[in-house]
Write a structure and sequence with these properties.
Oligomer: single chain
Structural class: alpha+beta
Shape: elongated
Helix content: 55-70%
Largest sheet: 2 strands, antiparallel
Bound molecules: zinc ion
Order of helices and strands: EEEEHHH
Radius of gyration: 28 Å
Strand order of the largest sheet: 1-2
Number of strands: 4
């Protein structure tokens, strides 16, 4: 049958082609059903690569979003205004204002107590 996982040979060690370059047993490698063979990169290196890919793509996505905001500044402001004027946006602003007010009062109280 095609795409069947080959039996593990516990005696054979394969050299990882990833970052670690270590010799590892087959169970340290993922089985690739497309290639019908074991991956040349061990599970640990695969994890690392995925993490790096995620971080790089997150950075890229952030950059793209910021670039978009810069290019579409007016539109961005419009979005923000719309949000600020929405019930949810207003609630958030009120909460923020109340918090700042409270903090100011707390500070005042502290200063008064000191004197
Ligand atoms: Zn490795």
């Amino acid at each position: 049958m095609k795409n069947e996982k080959k039996p593990l040979s516990k005696k054979v060690k394969i050299k990882c082609q990833g970052e670690c370059q270590e010799f590892k047993y087959q169970n340290e490698f993922y089985f690739n059903y497309v290639a019908e063979n074991y991956s040349v990169i061990c599970k640990e290196c695969d994890k690392t690569r995925k993490r790096i890919w995620y971080l790089e793509n997150k950075k890229k996505a952030d950059k793209q979003r910021k670039a978009w905001q810069k290019e579409n500044y007016e539109l961005h402001l419009e979005h923000q205004n719309k949000y600020n004027n929405s019930a949810k946006g207003k609630a958030v602003q009120k909460k923020y204002r109340d918090k700042m007010k409270k903090e100011r009062e707390e500070k005042k109280k502290k200063i008064c107590l000191k004197v």
